[in-house]
Write a structure and sequence with these properties.
By secondary structure, this protein is α/β, with parallel strands linked by helices. It contains nine helices and ten strands. Helix content is 35%, strand content 19%.
Length: 307
């Protein structure tokens, strides 16, 4: 049974195409789920603020958590704390997320990235239960990386932006890269739009030969991300999800690619000393919370702030 915190918490998962709002305390207690299209800041945040006001009118709200796409200014002493910064999403650069939401509630409002929030949700209730550290990777329209260490999300100068790491290029990949900032960074080569630029069709529409090559290229890049996370952040587990990972067999190929590129360098007796396939299958895993990781992570952010 899940230990349940007293009070009601609102979770807001702000994504580039939609915002998911919910009231709850854990995976077994989530209700009033509402999905709001991400259009302009004024319209979208106005609708989210309206959701918070309606919920607060019918139940006491102990805290609100916002897990948002970024980049974000998460430095509390900054004049632009709670604002988006260099996001490529049109119309959202510099948008104030916290202000419009804080004005409609007396409850404290926590803010972090969507992937940090999802990582926290997975640590608390999903694939990372019982661990102190975890990395959460989503591969979809972009590539995001959230990190947990000591049970807390990682922020500092800014927040993790692992999707923009530079990687070795696959020798058979002709794509120049489509990241508007860095060109052929990881996101520019391996996110969903890069897949479509390269092939013009989704994985379900490909021939067997095309799919084989596509999965090989994709796993080549994502395996390097896994290696980087292992060597730099040393999380006890990596959770990898997102729409691109729906391609049949891709996660297994990423495990193989990561094992190859690590080349036996990391050897932890309790994990990596087991047979390669078994060890990586337990280390690199799909989300335990499915597509609810983000909004549940936002609820967890609110709970941690109240604690």
């Amino acid at each position: 049974m899940i230990a349940r915190m007293p009070g009601n918490f609102i979770g807001v998962e702000a994504g580039g195409t939609k915002v998911v709002c919910a009231v709850g305390r854990d995976p077994d207690d989530v209700e009033e789920i509402e999905r709001i299209p991400t259009t302009t800041p004024d319209t979208t945040l106005g609708l989210v603020a309206g959701y918070i006001e309606r919920q607060a009118a019918v139940r006491p709200i102990a805290g609100v958590g916002v897990a948002s796409f970024g980049p974000l200014d998460l430095v509390p002493s900054s004049a632009t704390y709670g604002h988006l910064t260099t996001t490529p999403k049109p119309g959202w650069q510099g948008a104030d997320l916290l202000g419009p939401l804080s004005h409609v509630t007396s409850a404290p409002v926590a803010l972090d990235t969507d992937v940090n929030g999802a990582a926290l949700g997975e640590l608390r209730w999903g694939a990372g239960v019982g661990l102190d550290s975890l990395a959460y990777v989503t591969v979809g329209t972009g590539i995001g990386v959230g990190l947990i260490t000591g049970g807390r999300t990682v922020t500092g100068l800014a927040h993790p932006e692992g999707g923009h790491l530079l990687v070795r290029r696959h020798p058979s990949d002709p794509l120049e890269g489509r990241c508007p900032i860095h060109g052929d960074c990881l996101e520019g080569l391996a996110a969903g739009p890069a897949w479509m630029d390269r092939w013009g069709v989704t994985s379900s529409e490909m021939s067997a030969a095309q799919l084989e090559q596509a999965l090989d290229i994709q796993a080549y890049y994502l395996g390097q991300l896994v290696m980087t996370l292992v060597l730099v952040a040393s999380p006890e587990r990596i959770v990898m999800g997102g729409g691109v990972l729906a391609a049949d067999g891709l996660l297994d190929r990423v495990r193989q690619s990561a094992t190859t590129v690590l080349n036996g360098y990391v050897s932890v007796p309790s994990v990596m000393a087991r047979p390669e396939g078994e060890a990586m299958a337990e280390y690199l895993v799909p989300p335990g919370l499915g597509d609810r990781a983000g909004v549940l992570g936002a609820i967890a952010l609110a709970q941690d702030l109240v604690e």
